[in-house]
Write a structure and sequence with these properties.
CATH class of the largest domain: Alpha Beta
Pfam families: Glycos_trans_3N (PF02885), Glycos_transf_3 (PF00591), PYNP_C (PF07831)
GO cellular component, one term: cytosol
Shape: globular
Strand order of the largest sheet: 1-4-5-13-14
CATH topology of the largest domain: Pyrimidine Nucleoside Phosphorylase, Chain A, domain 2
Strand content: 15-25%
Distance between the termini: 47 Å
Catalytic activity: uridine + phosphate = alpha-D-ribose 1-phosphate + uracil; thymidine + phosphate = 2-deoxy-alpha-D-ribose 1-phosphate + thymine; 2'-deoxyuridine + phosphate = 2-deoxy-alpha-D-ribose 1-phosphate + uracil
Organism: Anaeromonas frigoriresistens
CATH superfamily of the largest domain: Nucleoside phosphorylase/phosphoribosyltransferase catalytic domain
GO molecular function: 1,4-alpha-oligoglucan phosphorylase activity; thymidine phosphorylase activity
Helix content: 40-55%
């Protein structure tokens, strides 16, 4: 077996065997296969695509390239949620405590934000003292004790994926559904959970810009999960505008706390209930989606979800006083109001561009080395299809630099579109993908 023959076989559109895929991943990871041969194979895959079986085999080879987290010492069915990334997406901060309060163990490995998308770890670190670098023993102990832990992925998870992604990034081979799906799922599966619910975003602020592509990616990932004996469900949700009203780390933590207290944005709660009810179903805590909704609403109403969030923050070294009093979280020195120049209805709020405005203010990082301003960000006062009067505030920009605030405000003016006509055809969830296939809503 050699790389020349493997490249030629895929170039001609033939299916690679499990042994050939394993050979490639093992030898590319250890440095035996040079970048130019790996690039040639990636380009052949990009054009000739991969079968369902090839994609599952590629995912398995990548997750086996490094450490697999053993969570068997955690009692019960371990569940996890993964989002493909968006703007204002603080779902994990709400979902984790709600599901844990229902008695289901949530063992979550999360990432940091890069570019216009925010990262769960960065948001959590806006809470003073909170530690996301948990040892394996501490991680497992916390899940067994309080049913919830969130930590950063170890450097040893799926090293083949890290190496391959860097190569895909510079060889124009990122946008292939099988390669995207195997990249995401190799890390999720290596993290050790028994059941996974995927939140596949679609729209201007998402990686997948159209519905067909989003459903295709969701189907690939669900097939991989099921092919690897993990219960897996995907929800396709809207990211044409930010989720909720807050964009930025401490601002999103405040919004998450409000949601756990029953005072959160409608769209954030709706998505959390949809994801959470399916986690409870996969975790065998309920027998139906409807029962899942009822149980999740109950833990909001009786305060146990908020209490669980506070318990989780304390268990990971965070300052619980900031949970009780969110005004103690990092606050920007300046707030600039963005006002409407005309009356009408908000017709467009490009999520990616709004995310980039938050990035200008300091809420995100352009490179892995960038420092984040935990207090910076944007609070929307209006969302798509809302009525707005001339001079009414559309958004509040939080920052610590006059220059950055003015730059972000100027950009925001061009992003938010106002029209004369209303449109009430807003949709948050477009469909579900599970073992039975695609169900569009």
């Amino acid at each position: 077996m050699n790389m020349y023959e493997i490249i030629k076989k895929k170039r001609e559109g033939n299916e690679l065997s499990k042994e050939e895929i394993n050979f490639f991943i093992e030898n590319y990871t250890n440095g035996s296969i040079p970048d130019y041969q790996a690039s040639a194979l990636l380009m052949a895959i990009f054009f000739k695509k991969m079968s369902k079986e090839e994609t599952v085999n590629l995912t398995e080879a990548m997750l086996r390239s490094g450490e697999e987290i053993d969570l068997t010492s955690i009692e019960g069915i371990k569940v996890d949620k993964h989002s493909t990334g968006g703007v204002g997406d603080k779902t994990t901060l709400v979902l984790g405590p709600m599901v844990a309060a229902c008695g289901l163990p949530v063992a979550k490995m999360s990432g940091r934000g890069l570019g216009h998308t925010g990262g769960t770890l960065d948001k959590l670190e806006s809470i003073e003292g909170l530690d996301i670098s948990l040892s394996k023993e501490k991680f497992i102990s916390n899940v067994n004790r309080i049913k919830l832990a969130v930590a950063g992925q170890t450097a040893n998870i799926a090293p083949a994926d890290k190496k391959l992604y860097s190569l895909r990034d510079v060889t124009a081979t990122v946008d292939n559904t099988s390669l995207i799906a195997s990249s995401i799922m190799s890390k999720k599966l290596a993290s050790g959970s028994d059941a996974i619910v995927l939140d596949v975003k679609v729209g201007s602020g998402a990686f997948m810009k159209d519905l067909d592509s989003a459903f295709e990616l969701a189907k690939e990932m669900v097939d991989i999960g099921i092919g690897m004996d993990r219960d897996t469900i995907a929800i396709i949700s809207d990211m044409d505008e930010p989720l909720g009203y807050a964009i930025g780390n401490s601002l999103e933590v405040k919004e998450a706390i409000n949601t756990l207290k029953g005072r959160g944005p409608k769209d954030l709660l709706e998505l959390t209930l949809a994801l959470g009810s399916r986690l409870l179903l996969l975790g065998k805590r309920v027998e139906s989606i409807e029962e899942g909704y009822q149980l999740l609403n109950k833990v909001i109403d009786d305060g146990s979800a908020f209490d669980k969030f506070k318990e989780f923050i304390t268990a990971q070294g965070g300052n619980s006083h900031q949970v009780d009093n969110p005004n103690l979280l990092p606050k920007a020195e300046q707030i600039l109001e963005l006002k409407a120049d005309e009356a009408g209805y908000i017709s467009e709020m490009n999520a990616e561009e709004i995310g980039r405005c938050a990035l200008i203010l300091g809420a995100g990082r352009e490179t892995k080395e960038s420092q984040i301003d935990m207090s910076a960000g944007i609070i929307l006062n209006k969302k798509k299809y809302d009525k707005v009067s001339t001079g009414e505030t559309i958004a509040f920009l939080h920052g610590n630099s006059d220059k950055k605030l003015k730059e972000a405000a100027k950009r925001m003016k061009n992003i938010v579109k106002i029209s004369e006509k209303s449109n009430d055809n807003k949709q948050l969830i477009y469909g579900i993908v599970d073992k039975d296939g695609i169900k569009r809503i």
